[in-house]
Design goal:
The structure holds 2 protein chains of 2 kinds. By secondary structure, chain A is α/β, with parallel strands linked by helices. Chain A has 19 helices and 14 strands. In chain A, the strands form 4 sheets. Chain A has an 8-stranded parallel sheet with strand order 4-13-12-11-10-7-6-5. Chain A has a two-stranded antiparallel ribbon with strand order 1-14. A two-stranded antiparallel ribbon of chain A has the order 2-3. In chain A, strand 12, helix 16 and strand 13 form a beta-alpha-beta unit. Chain A starts with 10 loop residues before the first helix and ends in a 9-residue tail after the last strand. Chain B has one domain. Helices cover 73% and strands 0% of the residues of chain B. The two termini of chain B are 21 Å apart. Classes of the chains: A alpha/beta, B mainly alpha.
Chain lengths: 519, 127
């Protein structure tokens, strides 16, 4: 039989049709597993015949030999280590620095998730008051799958622009209305998810920029209140800070909190984009005396955040609960949710009409929203993205003729002015962003928010990491970010022929029909 | 404090005491110590270096980073045993020293085993 012409080639060569450097791990492993004890013996001999000091190396290699023996013959959990020994550790070591290597060296400026280097850089530049212009051309693809803003042939001159102003609670004609003069709000981040330095830097920045901040569902906002900025108190399903022991609302506590001058609005959180319909568990190990006090929970036992408010089991009870909170708090009361089913949402709105009760605002959180910790399946697969859900919500509100009864806010990766403008054009009255402000604080997207090891001291309580986050300096960045967003807003509004945010309409947005309408 | 923790601490304290109480012979250049390191060809630098390593190991064994101290003690004791077997002899004048080295070696090996998940680099794969 004739010999095949490619017999001399390595498998990897004739399979792929091209040659590549093939690492033969099994052979390398055999070599290493022999080499380590052999080296120990060699140094032993050198130590015996030449100088005793060689035994420093003998000892080291004896130790490696023992570790290798443990990997190959004792432990049973790690297959690669059992099959190949210590050399397989290389894989774990290299793999463990993979994310850093990709971020530093290999990922392009537009491909990182959730935020590309380009997107992050824009926030960093705004926060540092640096020039954010770019040269030569856009780095994005223009392949008809993107959402774009439509400009006007007739831009509006700056002198004709009107200031932004939205008043919450005006529809109900309540005494304690709340007016914002900038369309940005720092989204819900609790003390707990964030360390105290980060909370205070954000709060101080919010105060300087003249925007409100949402407290998150972490209970009594002790650190948020230190800097005297306007606050939206968020009440999660566990009602931390305003709860009875059984998890129901404690009217007295809510009333007392609502009377604090900094608390301007109350937000009832029904669901969150990153984990819609998912509750949570605060393990007892994390409940320090301070957390127990702020959240109003006992120490020494796990506390469960249920997937829904105890009081809210259907549309009727939900609307009744909103009414109850409005009555107790005597403040504008909004609700926050990630949009799921259209029929349910419409039924909720119909129930509001029936009971003649409307929240003062609805916040729609896109499924792309961020969180400190959520199961991957919820984060990746559950809920509708913001640019899908916002037009639907706006349409339903208009069809039900209640759009003028409440304000609409939105959240979900809205960190850049273009995306924020798009959301406003699609129907929102104001923008919530959390991660935008985290980036302004110096977040480097290390993706360790759930590990207490945040290297820039934002999502950690470790004083060692928090030391680097100097409140005074970072508060300035937060304020700069807002100032520069506003600047871009003015210019973009003008280019779209709008005198104010109110003039924006879906006509200003190009939504590709079959595109993935995600941020 | 559970039983395992108590046992671990006992095995940390024994080698720490042995290591620390023999240091005075090394650091005061006790004639026997000098003789040993002369025999090994490492006098005086080896005597001082080993003394420092034993001091660090002894202190670490009494801290939460005990596993590092145990590794260090283990290494130094393997070296000591090699010295006894190859040059100094295991019986006679140096016999008790050899037995102490063996005891320290065993204790530190037990500590390494009990605290192996705390080892730097290797710990994560040592469950």
């Amino acid at each position: 039989m004739r010999e095949k012409p490619y017999k001399h080639l390595r498998i990897s060569e004739h399979r792929g049709g091209m040659s590549r450097l093939a690492v033969d791990l099994p052979k390398m492993a055999v070599a290493t597993n022999i080499a380590i004890p052999a080296t120990a013996v060699l140094f032993g001999a050198l130590g015996y015949f030449i100088h005793f000091a060689f035994h420093f190396l003998t000892v080291s290699f004896i130790f490696l030999t023992l570790v290798n023996f443990f990997y190959r013959h004792v432990q049973t959990r790690h297959t690669l280590l059992r099959n190949f020994g210590i050399i397989a550790q290389m894989r774990y070591l290299i793999e463990s620095i993979g994310p850093e290597l990709r971020q530093y060296l290999y990922a392009s400026d537009t491909e990182e998730k959730p935020f590309s280097r380009n997107e992050r850089a824009e926030v960093y530049r705004k926060a540092k008051n640096a020039d954010s212009s770019q040269s030569f051309g856009s780095l994005l693809n223009f392949d008809n799958h993107e959402i774009k803003l439509r400009h006007s042939l007739y831009p509006v001159d700056k002198e004709f622009q009107q200031p932004y102003k939205v008043t919450f609670g005006e529809e109900r004609k309540i005494k304690n209305t709340y007016t914002i003069t900038k369309p940005f709000i720092i989204s819900a981040m609790s003390y707990g998810a964030l360390g105290q330095n980060a909370v205070r830097a954000l709060a101080r920045g919010a105060k300087a920029a003249g925007i409100p901040m949402n407290t998150g569902e972490g209970g009594y906002p002790k650190y948020h209140m230190m800097e005297d900025c306007d606050l939206i108190f968020q009440m999660g399903t566990a009602k931390f800070g305003v709860r009875n022991n059984d998890g129901t609302l404690n009217d007295k506590k809510l009333k007392a909190l609502a009377k604090k001058p900094q608390i301007k609005m109350i937000e009832i959180k029904f669901s969150q984009g990153a984990k819609p319909g998912k509750g949570g568990l605060l393990p007892k190990e994390k409940i320090t005396a301070e957390i127990a006090e702020l959240r109003g929970v006992p120490m020494g036992e796990d506390v469960i955040s249920p997937p829904h408010h105890k009081e809210c089991t259907d549309a009727k009870s939900t609307v009744a609960f909103i009414k109850h909170v409005q009555d107790v708090a005597q403040l504008p009361v909004g609700i926050k949710m990630c949009f799921g089913r259209e029929d349910e949402f419409r039924a909720l709105i119909k129930e509001m009409k029936k009971q003649k009760v409307f929240p003062d605002y609805i916040t729609i959180d896109g499924a792309e929203g961020g969180t400190g910790a959520a199961p991957k399946s919820f984060m990746d697969e559950s809920g509708l993205p913001i640019f899908k859900s916002l037009p639907i919500v706006n349409r339903i509100l208009k069809e039900e003729k209640v759009r003028n009864k409440l304000k609409l806010m939105c959240a979900g990766k809205l960190i850049n002015p273009g995306k924020q403008m798009t959301a406003l054009a699609l129907g929102a009255d104001a923008i919530y962003t959390a991660r935008g402000f985290m980036l302004a604080l110096g977040c480097i997207q290390a993706l360790q928010c759930n590990k207490n090891t945040c290297p820039v001291g934002i999502t950690t309580h470790d004083p060692h990491f928090q030391k680097g986050l100097v409140i005074k300096d970072k508060a300035v960045r937060v304020a700069n970010y807002v100032k520069n967003l506003e600047h871009d807003f003015e210019e973009m509004l003008a280019s779209m022929g709008c005198a104010s945010v109110k003039d924006l309409s879906p006509e200003n947005v190009y939504l590709p029909r079959d595109a993935e309408c995600t941020t | 404090m559970n039983v395992k923790t108590i046992i671990t601490w006992i095995f940390q304290i024994i080698p720490a005491v042995i290591l620390l109480q023999t240091l005075r012979f090394k650091f005061t250049a006790d004639p026997m110590s000098v003789e040993i390191f002369t025999a090994l060809g490492m006098e005086p630098w080896g005597r001082i270096l080993i003394g420092i390593l034993e001091l660090i190991a002894g202190i670490l064994l009494l801290t939460p980073r005990a596993v590092l101290g145990a590794v260090l003690a283990f290494g130094v004791m393997v070296g000591a045993i090699i010295g006894h077997v190859s040059i100094l002899g295991v019986t006679g004048q140096h016999g008790p020293l050899f037995l102490m080295a063996v005891a320290t070696l065993i204790c530190s090996a037990i500590v390494i085993h009990l605290r192996r998940t705390q080892l730097p680099l290797f710990g994560k794969t040592m469950e």
